[in-house]
Amino acid sequence: MAELPQSIEDTxxxxxxxxxxxxxxxxxxxxxxLRMKRPLFLEGEAGVGKTEIAKVLAATLDRPLIRxxxxxxxxxxxxxxxxxxxxxxxxxxLDEASGxxxxxxxxxxxxxxxxxxxxxxxxxxSGKPGxxxxxxxxxxxxxxxxxxxxxxxxxxxYQVTIPELGTIxxxxxxxxxxxxxxxxEIHDALKRRCLYHWVDYPSAERELEIVxxxxxxxxxxxxxxxxxxxxxxxxxxxxxxxxxxxxIDWAGALTEMDxxxxxxxxxxxxxxxxxxxxxxIARISGGEGRRILDEVKAELNAA
Length: 303
Description:
By secondary structure, this protein is α/β, with parallel strands linked by helices. It has helices at residues 8-17, 24-36, 50-61, 76-79, 85-97, 103-110, 120-124, 145-157, 188-191, 204-214, 220-233, 244-256, 264-274, 278-302, and strands at residues 40-43, 65-69, 81-83, 116-118, 134-138, 159-162, 166-169, 175-180, 195-198. It has 14 helices and nine strands.
Protein backbone atom coordinates (compact mmCIF):
# COMPACT_ATOMS: atom_id res chain seq x y z
CA MET A 1 0.00 0.00 0.00
CA ALA A 2 1.35 3.45 -0.95
CA GLU A 3 1.98 5.99 1.80
CA LEU A 4 0.04 9.23 2.00
CA PRO A 5 1.83 12.15 0.31
CA GLN A 6 4.08 14.16 2.59
CA SER A 7 4.00 17.43 0.65
CA ILE A 8 2.06 19.33 -1.99
CA GLU A 9 4.64 18.26 -4.57
CA ASP A 10 4.13 14.63 -3.56
CA THR A 11 0.38 15.10 -3.98
CA UNK A 12 0.85 16.52 -7.46
CA UNK A 13 3.09 13.57 -8.33
CA UNK A 14 0.53 11.13 -6.89
CA UNK A 15 -2.27 12.56 -9.03
CA UNK A 16 -0.03 12.62 -12.10
CA UNK A 17 0.89 8.98 -11.53
CA UNK A 18 -2.83 8.22 -11.73
CA UNK A 19 -3.19 10.16 -14.96
CA UNK A 20 -4.92 13.16 -13.38
CA UNK A 21 -3.67 16.57 -14.52
CA UNK A 22 -4.22 18.84 -11.50
CA UNK A 23 -3.31 22.42 -10.70
CA UNK A 24 -1.45 23.36 -7.52
CA UNK A 25 -4.55 24.74 -5.78
CA UNK A 26 -6.31 21.37 -6.00
CA UNK A 27 -3.19 19.49 -4.91
CA UNK A 28 -2.84 21.82 -1.92
CA UNK A 29 -6.37 21.33 -0.59
CA UNK A 30 -6.16 17.59 -1.22
CA UNK A 31 -2.88 17.38 0.68
CA UNK A 32 -4.39 19.29 3.62
CA UNK A 33 -7.47 17.08 3.57
CA LEU A 34 -5.32 13.95 3.82
CA ARG A 35 -3.08 15.39 6.53
CA MET A 36 -5.90 16.82 8.65
CA LYS A 37 -8.19 13.81 8.07
CA ARG A 38 -10.99 16.10 6.97
CA PRO A 39 -13.53 15.40 4.21
CA LEU A 40 -12.87 17.18 0.91
CA PHE A 41 -15.90 18.95 -0.56
CA LEU A 42 -15.55 19.36 -4.33
CA GLU A 43 -18.01 21.60 -6.13
CA GLY A 44 -18.18 22.37 -9.84
CA GLU A 45 -19.97 21.81 -13.10
CA ALA A 46 -20.67 18.28 -14.29
CA GLY A 47 -17.85 16.65 -16.22
CA VAL A 48 -14.89 18.61 -14.83
CA GLY A 49 -13.24 15.64 -13.09
CA LYS A 50 -14.50 15.72 -9.49
CA THR A 51 -15.40 12.04 -9.28
CA GLU A 52 -12.17 11.06 -11.02
CA ILE A 53 -10.14 12.47 -8.10
CA ALA A 54 -11.54 9.82 -5.75
CA LYS A 55 -10.92 7.06 -8.28
CA VAL A 56 -7.32 8.16 -8.79
CA LEU A 57 -6.71 8.38 -5.03
CA ALA A 58 -8.00 4.85 -4.49
CA ALA A 59 -5.87 3.49 -7.33
CA THR A 60 -2.63 5.27 -6.45
CA LEU A 61 -2.92 4.70 -2.68
CA ASP A 62 -4.00 1.07 -3.21
CA ARG A 63 -7.13 1.45 -1.12
CA PRO A 64 -10.69 0.25 -1.66
CA LEU A 65 -13.05 2.72 -3.32
CA ILE A 66 -16.52 2.80 -1.77
CA ARG A 67 -19.00 4.91 -3.73
CA UNK A 68 -22.31 6.24 -2.49
CA UNK A 69 -24.18 7.49 -5.56
CA UNK A 70 -26.73 9.98 -4.28
CA UNK A 71 -30.24 10.41 -5.64
CA UNK A 72 -33.55 11.90 -4.60
CA UNK A 73 -35.16 9.77 -1.89
CA UNK A 74 -31.91 8.15 -0.69
CA UNK A 75 -32.49 6.86 2.85
CA UNK A 76 -30.64 5.08 5.65
CA UNK A 77 -31.58 1.58 4.49
CA UNK A 78 -29.99 2.22 1.08
CA UNK A 79 -27.01 4.28 2.25
CA UNK A 80 -26.05 2.92 5.68
CA UNK A 81 -27.48 -0.46 6.66
CA UNK A 82 -30.51 -2.68 6.78
CA UNK A 83 -31.37 -5.99 8.37
CA UNK A 84 -31.64 -9.19 6.38
CA UNK A 85 -35.27 -9.76 7.31
CA UNK A 86 -35.67 -12.98 5.30
CA UNK A 87 -32.68 -14.58 7.02
CA UNK A 88 -33.90 -13.34 10.40
CA UNK A 89 -37.31 -14.95 9.89
CA UNK A 90 -35.71 -18.26 8.93
CA UNK A 91 -33.50 -18.11 12.03
CA UNK A 92 -36.50 -17.44 14.26
CA UNK A 93 -38.39 -20.37 12.75
CA LEU A 94 -35.39 -22.67 13.28
CA ASP A 95 -35.04 -21.54 16.89
CA GLU A 96 -38.73 -22.16 17.52
CA ALA A 97 -38.55 -25.57 15.87
CA SER A 98 -35.59 -26.54 18.06
CA GLY A 99 -37.57 -25.71 21.18
CA UNK A 100 -35.85 -22.46 22.18
CA UNK A 101 -38.18 -20.28 24.24
CA UNK A 102 -35.82 -17.57 25.51
CA UNK A 103 -37.16 -14.63 23.53
CA UNK A 104 -34.36 -12.27 24.61
CA UNK A 105 -31.72 -14.74 23.45
CA UNK A 106 -33.52 -15.13 20.13
CA UNK A 107 -33.70 -11.36 19.75
CA UNK A 108 -30.00 -10.93 20.52
CA UNK A 109 -29.21 -13.59 17.94
CA UNK A 110 -31.28 -12.21 15.07
CA UNK A 111 -30.03 -8.66 15.67
CA UNK A 112 -26.38 -9.66 15.59
CA UNK A 113 -23.90 -8.56 12.93
CA UNK A 114 -24.28 -11.72 10.84
CA UNK A 115 -27.75 -10.47 9.82
CA UNK A 116 -26.58 -6.92 9.17
CA UNK A 117 -26.35 -5.81 5.54
CA UNK A 118 -23.68 -3.13 5.31
CA UNK A 119 -24.38 -0.37 2.83
CA UNK A 120 -21.72 2.12 1.58
CA UNK A 121 -21.60 4.37 4.69
CA UNK A 122 -21.13 1.45 7.07
CA UNK A 123 -18.66 -0.22 4.70
CA UNK A 124 -16.59 2.99 4.70
CA UNK A 125 -16.45 2.95 8.51
CA SER A 126 -15.38 -0.71 8.60
CA GLY A 127 -11.95 -0.30 7.03
CA LYS A 128 -8.88 -1.84 8.60
CA PRO A 129 -6.32 0.42 10.34
CA GLY A 130 -3.68 1.50 7.86
CA UNK A 131 -5.91 0.81 4.88
CA UNK A 132 -9.01 2.89 5.37
CA UNK A 133 -11.02 3.14 2.15
CA UNK A 134 -11.60 6.13 -0.09
CA UNK A 135 -15.26 7.00 0.47
CA UNK A 136 -16.84 8.88 -2.45
CA UNK A 137 -20.17 10.59 -1.73
CA UNK A 138 -21.08 11.48 -5.29
CA UNK A 139 -23.53 14.24 -6.30
CA UNK A 140 -24.71 15.03 -2.78
CA UNK A 141 -26.91 17.82 -4.13
CA UNK A 142 -29.30 15.16 -5.52
CA UNK A 143 -30.34 14.11 -2.00
CA UNK A 144 -32.56 16.04 0.43
CA UNK A 145 -31.72 17.99 3.59
CA UNK A 146 -32.80 15.13 5.84
CA UNK A 147 -30.02 12.94 4.50
CA UNK A 148 -27.54 15.79 4.85
CA UNK A 149 -28.47 16.02 8.54
CA UNK A 150 -27.77 12.32 8.97
CA UNK A 151 -24.32 12.71 7.38
CA UNK A 152 -23.35 15.21 10.07
CA UNK A 153 -22.77 12.42 12.60
CA UNK A 154 -20.76 10.43 10.09
CA UNK A 155 -18.53 13.35 9.06
CA UNK A 156 -18.10 14.71 12.59
CA UNK A 157 -17.19 11.57 14.51
CA TYR A 158 -16.94 8.88 11.82
CA GLN A 159 -19.55 6.79 13.56
CA VAL A 160 -23.03 5.42 12.97
CA THR A 161 -25.59 4.54 15.62
CA ILE A 162 -27.66 1.39 15.08
CA PRO A 163 -30.38 1.09 17.74
CA GLU A 164 -30.15 -2.70 17.98
CA LEU A 165 -26.33 -2.84 18.09
CA GLY A 166 -25.17 0.51 19.43
CA THR A 167 -22.59 2.87 17.98
CA ILE A 168 -20.14 1.64 15.36
CA UNK A 169 -16.99 3.76 15.08
CA UNK A 170 -14.32 3.69 12.42
CA UNK A 171 -11.00 2.26 13.58
CA UNK A 172 -9.44 4.74 11.17
CA UNK A 173 -11.35 7.54 9.38
CA UNK A 174 -11.88 6.91 5.66
CA UNK A 175 -10.64 9.37 3.05
CA UNK A 176 -13.89 11.17 2.26
CA UNK A 177 -14.50 12.93 -1.06
CA UNK A 178 -17.85 14.68 -1.50
CA UNK A 179 -18.91 16.01 -4.90
CA UNK A 180 -21.78 18.27 -5.90
CA UNK A 181 -22.84 19.85 -9.19
CA UNK A 182 -24.41 22.76 -7.31
CA UNK A 183 -27.98 22.10 -8.45
CA UNK A 184 -28.89 23.27 -4.94
CA GLU A 185 -27.03 24.71 -1.98
CA ILE A 186 -25.62 22.33 0.63
CA HIS A 187 -26.19 23.33 4.27
CA ASP A 188 -23.40 25.26 5.98
CA ALA A 189 -23.30 22.80 8.90
CA LEU A 190 -22.09 20.07 6.58
CA LYS A 191 -19.68 22.30 4.67
CA ARG A 192 -18.03 23.40 7.94
CA ARG A 193 -16.89 19.85 8.52
CA CYS A 194 -15.05 19.77 5.19
CA LEU A 195 -12.28 21.48 3.28
CA TYR A 196 -13.71 23.13 0.17
CA HIS A 197 -12.51 23.43 -3.41
CA TRP A 198 -14.21 24.66 -6.57
CA VAL A 199 -13.20 22.51 -9.55
CA ASP A 200 -13.34 24.80 -12.57
CA TYR A 201 -12.97 24.10 -16.25
CA PRO A 202 -9.25 23.68 -17.04
CA SER A 203 -7.16 26.11 -19.01
CA ALA A 204 -6.51 25.29 -22.67
CA GLU A 205 -2.97 24.12 -21.86
CA ARG A 206 -4.11 21.79 -19.09
CA GLU A 207 -7.05 20.46 -21.10
CA LEU A 208 -4.74 19.68 -24.03
CA GLU A 209 -2.50 17.72 -21.68
CA ILE A 210 -5.55 15.83 -20.39
CA VAL A 211 -6.55 14.90 -23.94
CA UNK A 212 -3.01 13.75 -24.71
CA UNK A 213 -3.05 11.45 -21.68
CA UNK A 214 -6.57 10.10 -22.09
CA UNK A 215 -6.56 9.77 -25.90
CA UNK A 216 -2.90 9.18 -26.77
CA UNK A 217 -3.77 7.95 -30.27
CA UNK A 218 -5.32 11.30 -31.23
CA UNK A 219 -3.49 13.38 -33.84
CA UNK A 220 -1.68 16.34 -32.30
CA UNK A 221 -3.26 18.89 -34.63
CA UNK A 222 -6.70 17.38 -34.04
CA UNK A 223 -6.28 17.48 -30.25
CA UNK A 224 -5.24 21.14 -30.40
CA UNK A 225 -8.23 22.06 -32.57
CA UNK A 226 -10.66 20.15 -30.35
CA UNK A 227 -9.46 21.87 -27.19
CA UNK A 228 -9.55 25.34 -28.76
CA UNK A 229 -13.02 24.68 -30.16
CA UNK A 230 -14.35 23.52 -26.78
CA UNK A 231 -12.75 26.45 -24.99
CA UNK A 232 -14.58 28.85 -27.32
CA UNK A 233 -17.88 27.02 -26.77
CA UNK A 234 -17.51 27.63 -23.04
CA UNK A 235 -17.46 31.38 -23.70
CA UNK A 236 -20.94 31.13 -25.21
CA UNK A 237 -24.28 31.29 -23.41
CA UNK A 238 -25.22 27.64 -23.86
CA UNK A 239 -27.71 25.72 -21.72
CA UNK A 240 -25.04 23.13 -20.80
CA UNK A 241 -21.40 23.85 -21.42
CA UNK A 242 -19.27 20.85 -22.43
CA UNK A 243 -17.10 19.44 -19.66
CA UNK A 244 -13.70 17.79 -19.84
CA UNK A 245 -15.42 14.41 -20.10
CA UNK A 246 -17.12 15.55 -23.32
CA UNK A 247 -13.83 16.86 -24.70
CA ILE A 248 -12.23 13.45 -24.10
CA ASP A 249 -15.21 11.66 -25.66
CA TRP A 250 -15.09 13.90 -28.73
CA ALA A 251 -11.37 13.36 -29.18
CA GLY A 252 -11.90 9.61 -28.85
CA ALA A 253 -14.78 9.61 -31.34
CA LEU A 254 -12.88 11.60 -33.97
CA THR A 255 -9.82 9.40 -33.51
CA GLU A 256 -12.00 6.32 -34.13
CA MET A 257 -13.08 8.02 -37.38
CA ASP A 258 -9.40 8.49 -38.34
CA UNK A 259 -9.78 12.26 -38.48
CA UNK A 260 -6.63 14.35 -38.54
CA UNK A 261 -8.30 17.76 -38.26
CA UNK A 262 -11.71 19.36 -37.78
CA UNK A 263 -13.88 20.34 -40.73
CA UNK A 264 -17.45 21.73 -40.85
CA UNK A 265 -19.03 18.44 -41.88
CA UNK A 266 -17.27 16.44 -39.16
CA UNK A 267 -18.23 18.98 -36.48
CA UNK A 268 -21.87 18.88 -37.62
CA UNK A 269 -21.97 15.06 -37.71
CA UNK A 270 -20.39 14.53 -34.29
CA UNK A 271 -21.59 17.55 -32.29
CA UNK A 272 -23.92 15.26 -30.31
CA UNK A 273 -20.86 13.79 -28.60
CA UNK A 274 -20.01 17.25 -27.28
CA UNK A 275 -23.40 18.92 -26.67
CA UNK A 276 -26.41 17.15 -25.15
CA UNK A 277 -29.26 19.63 -25.62
CA UNK A 278 -31.00 20.24 -28.94
CA UNK A 279 -31.17 24.03 -28.51
CA UNK A 280 -27.39 24.15 -28.07
CA ILE A 281 -26.83 21.83 -31.04
CA ALA A 282 -29.13 23.89 -33.26
CA ARG A 283 -27.23 27.05 -32.41
CA ILE A 284 -23.84 25.52 -33.21
CA SER A 285 -25.01 23.67 -36.31
CA GLY A 286 -25.60 26.96 -38.08
CA GLY A 287 -23.17 29.70 -38.94
CA GLU A 288 -21.97 30.06 -35.34
CA GLY A 289 -20.22 26.70 -35.43
CA ARG A 290 -18.47 27.50 -38.69
CA ARG A 291 -17.36 30.88 -37.33
CA ILE A 292 -15.79 29.21 -34.28
CA LEU A 293 -14.02 26.66 -36.48
CA ASP A 294 -12.64 29.42 -38.71
CA GLU A 295 -11.28 31.23 -35.64
CA VAL A 296 -9.62 28.04 -34.38
CA LYS A 297 -7.98 27.37 -37.76
CA ALA A 298 -6.78 30.99 -38.02
CA GLU A 299 -5.27 30.91 -34.52
CA LEU A 300 -3.40 27.68 -35.20
CA ASN A 301 -2.13 28.87 -38.57
CA ALA A 302 -0.92 32.10 -36.98
CA ALA A 303 0.81 30.13 -34.22
